[in-house]
Amino acid sequence: MDSYRFLSAYYDRFTDDVGYRDWADYFEQVFARCGFRPELILDLACGTGSLSGEMARRGYEMIGVDASNEMLMQAMNNTIDCNPRPVFLHQRMENLDLYGTIQAVLCCLDSVNYVTEPKVLQEAFRRVSLFLEPDGVFVFDVNTKKKFNAMNGQCYVREDEDVYCIWQAQFDGTTCTYDFDIFERLGEKNRWERMEESHLERYYEPDALCALLEECGFDRIERHPELSFGEINGSEDRIFIIARKRK
What we know:
247 residues, single chain, globular, alpha/beta, 7 helices
């Protein structure tokens, strides 16, 4: 499935409500709780590079990895002003291959849910562990079953003057399918071009994710509500998992 073939060009326009500064603040709090400031950070499934750019502007050296060439093209454009500028690589999570080690890995906006095969996710975690230095930190978020259930059968619309995007979600208890229809106005004759795209996400039980992390060399695993360090109570739409590579 060629996710983001078309949506990449409009992704930032339709996700302008994502608080990347808040996410970056949270990750810096995670680093402080871990007692270190990483020099080199991997932004896994970096998308259009918004988080990579935000972290780079705060003085971190960043590597961004994504499976979509189209998203990486957007990321290159979005980080022109950064110094140091992030390095972007075209790789799938399970094929991660870096030139050396990193001290922290961030994987944001339910990118883990996009890995729909547990064995493939296990390999992705193993690759993260391989390139993460001992005692390094791995932080990612996932959608909860509560959120997937709430989206099931729903239809969503985002639009501006020249682009209209509608998507529908169907959740079968394990897999969530998003079907996108994107309409873009062409020229001044009020003609519209239609593009179609489908995405898949898989729901993972948090216990299963933690077990996979342990198998891949992680410990000191924490689970928290979105952008907090509180306790999980079942009302969350998104949870964060923080893990350290074994020393």
